[in-house]
User: Which sequence fits this backbone?
């Protein structure tokens, strides 16, 4: 039931059968502002560099995610789960580098310090269940936050993300 908004920022995975990690992120654009359509513009190379000072830097970055979950629980899909989205950057998980090669990236509209909505937790749990059914190598132990795969560089989904609540929604 996701809204499809294709991103040009993806490529083929090195190994199609090697999807084994789910990474939870957060994003708000402009920073700290929620319910603004700039996120879709960012992931689709349509961000107006004159709209905000930060956008002058961001508009040519070439970043994507597989999906975004808005505050109201709406899911927007930018990249097929079978393709490699450019969401993790320099990263490693369990000693293995280049997380984009083998992971799925889900962005939550939010910040490190604003609580996520109940609708987002429900949508994230439903999406996670669908993903893990299709990609059984993604187990509970292989669901992580961006902050854990790029710890000196990233802080998301942040202190406001309630991992216990998320796992309860997953019935883990």
Assistant:
């Amino acid at each position: 039931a996701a809204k499809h908004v294709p991103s040009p920022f993806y490529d083929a995975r090195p190994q199609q059968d090697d999807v084994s990690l789910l990474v939870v992120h957060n994003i708000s654009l402009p920073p700290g502002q929620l319910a603004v359509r700039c996120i879709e513009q960012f992931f689709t190379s349509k961000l107006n560099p004159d709209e905000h000072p930060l956008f002058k830097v961001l508009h040519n970055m070439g970043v994507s995610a597989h999906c975004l979950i808005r505050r109201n629980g709406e899911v927007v899909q930018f990249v097929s789960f079978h393709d490699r989205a450019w969401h993790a950057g320099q990263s490693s998980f369990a000693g293995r580098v280049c997380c984009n090669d083998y992971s799925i990236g889900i962005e939550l509209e939010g910040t490190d310090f604003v609580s996520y909505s109940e609708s987002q937790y429900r949508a994230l749990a439903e999406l996670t269940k669908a993903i893990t059914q299709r990609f059984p190598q993604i187990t509970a132990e292989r669901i992580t936050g961006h902050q854990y795969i790029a710890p000196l560089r990233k802080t998301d989904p942040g202190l406001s993300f309630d991992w216990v609540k998320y796992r309860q929604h997953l019935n883990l």
Remarks:
- Helices lie at 38-43, 55-58, 118-134, 146-149, 163-170.
